[in-house]
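Structure ticket #2291
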Amino acid sequence: MTEPRTDLIATPSQTVGPFFAIGTCPEGGLGRLAGPGARGERITLSIQVLDGESQPVADSMIELWQADADGKYGVDRDFSGFGRLATDPSGRGTFETIRPGPIARADETAEAAHVNVCLFMRGLLRHVYTRAYFAGDPALSNDPVLSLVPVERRPTLLAHPVPGDAAAWAFEIRLQGAHETVFFDL
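Resolution: structure written out below.
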């Protein structure tokens, strides 16, 4: 009988990217969440992914899901609430959506309007989760999830209006380094 090998090492169960352009993001992706009849304020949300050296990550995939204008999931038939895009050479994916409403919780509190973001990219064996809140929203101070984040790190979770375009918002995901985005352990 042969002895078991002890020189073997564990390997990851899967390798992530860069392969997102091959089948996981259809031509044009899923960047439009709101159909013509969707209720609510129409916005674009541009998400840029930057690495630890502030360089764009052009081969990542961004998924997002969000509530409708009434703060509900899966109710408005003209609003999918789900999007998926591969990032472009500048590390961006731009989604056409609506501004979500605050989400009522069972404990009678409400979460401030936000978009849930999931990021897949090279070098990550597991995807990461974060949220994009809207800067200037008065409900931010009472959000029960945001209150779990140290005050000095909360700005990393804020999307900001794009100057000169009232319907455009920009959110930056920094993977490491100064101003690293807060990621949630789900």
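Closing remark: Residues 3 and 139 are 63 Å apart (CA to CA).
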